[in-house]
Amino acid sequence: MVLAGGAIGCLMGGYLGDWLVQRTGERRWSRRILGCGGHFLAALALGSSTLFDSPLAAALCASLACLTSNIQLATWWAAVTDVSGKHLGALFGLLNSMGVPGAFVSPVFFGWASQWLGSLGYTGRDQFDPLFYVYAFVLLVGATGWLFVDATRSVVDSPDSPKPELV
Q1: Rounded distance, CA 88 to CA 101, Å?
Q2: Which DSSP state fits 160?
Q3: Which of 19, 23, 30, 129 has the greatest number of CB atoms lying within 10 Å of its CB?
Q4: Helix (H, G, I), strand (E, B) or coil at 154
Q5: What is the pTM of this model?
Q6: What is the Cα 33 distance to its own chain's centre?
Q7: Is the pLDDT assigned to residue 162 strictly greater than 80?
């Protein structure tokens, strides 16, 4: 269910992002709204998953978290395309590689922290639920970061740089 939520969210995000930019005619806040909103809703859904005793309800919340987190993925690709100019491949490579340390550390941290909580005598959900709050907080940090993304400003050319003359 969680992976299906992510796939659906990614597809929805592409259509929603295009629709929002066309509807508003404005890229900066359209990208920010989808990026910030997607991560914010994902944080709420992931944090909420700890409130349910039903495994199905908790899994539905986790699926919603994955769906809303992935809604921003197409917007991320669009924002990178918007700002990269002629260096699209290099910027995609750089930004994708910046996520690798987090992708590596995340499961290691989860395993270590759950074992540490277990060594302190916590069992069952008391051993794992606090870790979902950590990940919800990380999603909130991501949501906040989206507020500073400006898809209308190129990372290649500054406003003061001289424009090449056409011959």
Answers
A1: 22
A2: T
A3: 30
A4: coil
A5: 0.86
A6: 12
A7: no
Scanning the structure block, which residue is given the tokens 């919800």?
136
Q: Are 156 and 84 in contact (CB under 8 A)?
A: yes
Cβ(77)–Cβ(95) below 8 Å: no
String of DSSP letters for 2-71: HHHHHHHHHHHHHHHHHHHHHHHS-HHHHHHHHHHHHHHHHHHHHHHGGG-SSHHHHHHHHHHHHHHHHH
Q: State yes or no: pLDDT of 161 exceeds 80.
A: no
Q: Which of 65, 73, 56, 90 lies closest to 11 in space, CA to CA?
A: 73
Q: What mean pLDDT, rounded, does the chain reach? A: 91
Residue 6 structure tokens: 């992510």
Which letter does DSSP use for residue 156 in this model?
Answer: S
Class of residue 150 by CB neighbours under 10 A (exposed 0-12, middle 13-18, buried 19+): middle
Structural tokens at position 31: 């990208």
